[in-house]
Design the sequence.
């Protein structure tokens, strides 16, 4: 995607969603008023460069990123403060159970970012370990994965619908590879790039429409 649409990661895979934070939200050397003055001056220099040398998508993205960073410094702490949400909302997203808490927190944060004007928010189920989360025992692995995400996803969709956001918010869910219909070895089934599932909800997507399917062998 073009530079202006690049995302901002919050935390990293080794951190739980409760510990994930956007770094450098505070500037110990300057007040926000001084930062605003410096940013305005820098913006004038950058826009003068654009006037002199023509359009430059990378520079325009940099200008936008500076402005976005300044706004985020003031907004992010409040968005990530989930104590502002009711206990019923916490329960809806699964924050009351250990197995659903991490992904549920991500989904709730996604809703809070969206309602404050974010164009795109991505939630990613964390995984730790040397092998895929469904290996080496596919049954227990997939069961655990489903338990971690099913309730938060349902809560997220219900919340968006109740708030009137689902009509113009497209939710796109996907896992990784599907699995082959046969077993390759002790670690279970191999990747199947021709048979994995994604679904869309809201945003004008037609309910009940299935596009593409596997054959009787799973290919």
Sequence:
């Amino acid at each position: 995607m073009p530079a202006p649409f690049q995302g901002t990661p919050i935390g990293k895979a080794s951190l739980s969603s409760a510990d994930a934070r956007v770094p450098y939200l505070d500037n110990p050397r300057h007040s926000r008023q001084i930062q605003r003055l410096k940013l305005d001056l820098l913006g004038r220099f950058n826009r003068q460069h654009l006037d002199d040398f023509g359009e430059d998508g990378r520079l325009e993205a940099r200008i936008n990123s500076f402005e976005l960073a300044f706004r985020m410094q003031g907004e992010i702490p409040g968005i990530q403060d989930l104590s502002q949400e009711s206990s019923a909302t916490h329960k809806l997203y699964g924050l009351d159970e250990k197995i659903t808490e991490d992904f549920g927190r991500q989904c709730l944060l996604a809703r809070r970012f969206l309602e404050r004007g974010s164009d795109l928010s991505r939630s990613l189920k964390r995984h730790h370990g040397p092998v895929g989360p469904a290996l080496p025992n596919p049954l227990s692995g997939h069961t655990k994965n489903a338990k971690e995400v099913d309730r938060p996803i349902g809560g997220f969709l219900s919340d968006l619908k109740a708030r009137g956001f689902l009509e113009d918010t497209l939710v796109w869910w996907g896992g990784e590879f599907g699995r082959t219909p046969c077993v390759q070895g002790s670690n279970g089934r191999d990747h199947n790039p021709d048979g994995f599932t994604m679904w869309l909800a809201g945003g004008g997507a037609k309910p009940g429409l299935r596009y593409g399917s596997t054959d009787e062998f799973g290919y």
About this structure: The mean pLDDT is 86. Strands lie at 170-174, 178-185, 188-192, 198-202.
